[in-house]
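Whiteboard transcription, Tuesday session. T.W. wrote the structure tokens on the left side:
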């Protein structure tokens, strides 16, 4: 009986040594802790054979009537309006039905567009903003000043302006566009209406 137990103990020790479990090392590679450290050091990294990015990140996009810009929600864009320029940032949409099930086909959406660092007086108007929904429909949101009430008629140097925009949109992708002089938008921000 003792010989059988001794043989089983030796067999178990040999299996542990070969698998790297236990305090010793198998083949000089370290135990499981060393293996875990090696694999976690590379986990989530990009493969070395992928080309390196050359476009700078977190840069401010430039937009003008000659070169319109497409940004994503939260991006700040330096918008040239005639001889003047202003920094514009769109955030949203925020939706009140987050987490509802089943997902409703439409949802009330709120956007905030902030203008800052204007170089001169730049006219703004509610009719200069449009939304394009997932289905390709062009919509005209209700635009107010940030605290409510009518929006100002212009952006002035040293006076940031935030506008709130409201509409009911279908779930999915969309775009918020600003055409300060009317006609073709100078800047657009992509967004997603997510309820889940």
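and on the right, the sequence the group agreed on:
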């Amino acid at each position: 009986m003792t010989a059988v137990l001794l043989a089983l103990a030796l067999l178990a020790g040999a299996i542990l040594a070969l698998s790297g479990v236990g305090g010793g090392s198998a083949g000089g590679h370290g135990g499981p802790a060393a293996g875990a450290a090696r694999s976690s050091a590379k986990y989530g990294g990009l493969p070395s054979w992928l080309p390196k990015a050359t476009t700078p990140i977190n840069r401010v996009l430039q937009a003008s009537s000659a070169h319109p810009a497409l940004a994503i929600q939260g991006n700040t864009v330096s918008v040239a309006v005639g001889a003047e320029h202003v920094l514009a940032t769109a955030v949203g949409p925020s939706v009140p039905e987050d987490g509802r099930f089943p997902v409703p086909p439409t949802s009330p959406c709120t956007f905030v567009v902030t203008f800052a660092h204007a170089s001169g007086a730049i006219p703004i108007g509610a009719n200069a903003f449009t939304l394009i929904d997932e289905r390709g429909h062009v919509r005209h949101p209700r635009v107010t000043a940030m605290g409510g009430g009518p929006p100002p008629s212009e952006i002035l140097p040293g006076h940031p302006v935030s506008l709130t925009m409201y509409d009911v949109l279908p779930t999915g992708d969309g775009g918020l566009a600003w055409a300060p002089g009317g006609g073709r938008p100078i800047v657009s921000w992509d967004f997603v209406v997510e309820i889940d």
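Someone added at the bottom: The chain has two domains: 2-42, 61-193.
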